[in-house]
Amino acid sequence: MQHKSSRSRSPSGVHKFSAENLLSSHAAALKSPRLRTAALRVLAFDPGFERLGVAVLEKENGKEILKHSECVHTSPSLSFPERLLELGEAAEKLIKKFKPSAVALEKVYFENNAKTAMQIAGVTGMLSYIASKNKLPVLQYTPLEVKVAVTGYGKSDKRAVGLMVSKLVVLPVRKRLDDELDAIAIGLTCLANSRYPHSK
């Protein structure tokens, strides 16, 4: 999720115009009283077949809480169907363990590598199937929608997204890959979206 911008940026990678008010404005948006309902839990994925970013977030009384996040890795020695099997089994276990109210995915677009695009589309389709099989709604968001929801700027780079994720939810101290941080950002986007289905 990276775009170039002709405007100047601060060292953090966040557009300098919005840097001062970024945290307060978007934390307030995510915690708007109109979005406060009973506990909501989302299982978010950043689709990939080498690394699948995963995050489980919960919203209760207007507060976003990270319950779990990780990167699921598959071996390059496996065939693509075998990788899909491993990822699908991991997704099934996560649904069984965390009992989410919905599944959130990022819509990924590729312009140059058709093979990679088809494989990631396969992962997305598999995850959507598993969610539907478990009677969970599937919400999809473009990279632009995720950046705007988390940072307030549609051309933010990965560093800016990761920075804001760490400001919006409490992250246990350890190293994380971009895929995992992206999954958390996707989950935050879902929880911030007023169309997110309410738990019954």
> CATH homologous superfamily name?
Ribonuclease H-like superfamily/Ribonuclease H
Beginning-to-end CA distance, first to last residue: 34 Å
- Under CATH at level 1, the class stands as Alpha Beta
The DSSP helix count reads: 6
Question: How many β-strand runs?
Answer: 5
Query: Can you give the helix content as a percent range?
Result: 40-55%
* CATH architecture field: 2-Layer Sandwich
Backbone shape:
globular
Averaged pLDDT: 82
Number of domains: 1
Can you give a write-up of this model?
By secondary structure, the protein is α/β, with parallel strands linked by helices. The protein has one domain (16-192): Ribonuclease H-like superfamily/Ribonuclease H (Nucleotidyltransferase, domain 5, 2-Layer Sandwich), CATH 3.30.420.10. It has six helices and five strands; from the N terminus they run αβββαβαβααα. The protein has a five-stranded mixed β-sheet with strand order 3-2-1-4-5, sandwiched between helices. Helix 2 packs parallel to helix 3, helix 4 packs across helix 6 and helix 5 crosses helix 6. The longest helix has 20 residues, at 114-133. It is globular, with a radius of gyration of 17 Å. The relative contact order is 0.23.
Gist?
The protein has six helices and five strands. It is α/β, with parallel strands linked by helices and 200 residues long.
Describe this protein with a few key phrases:
single chain, Nucleotidyltransferase, domain 5, 6 helices, 5 strands
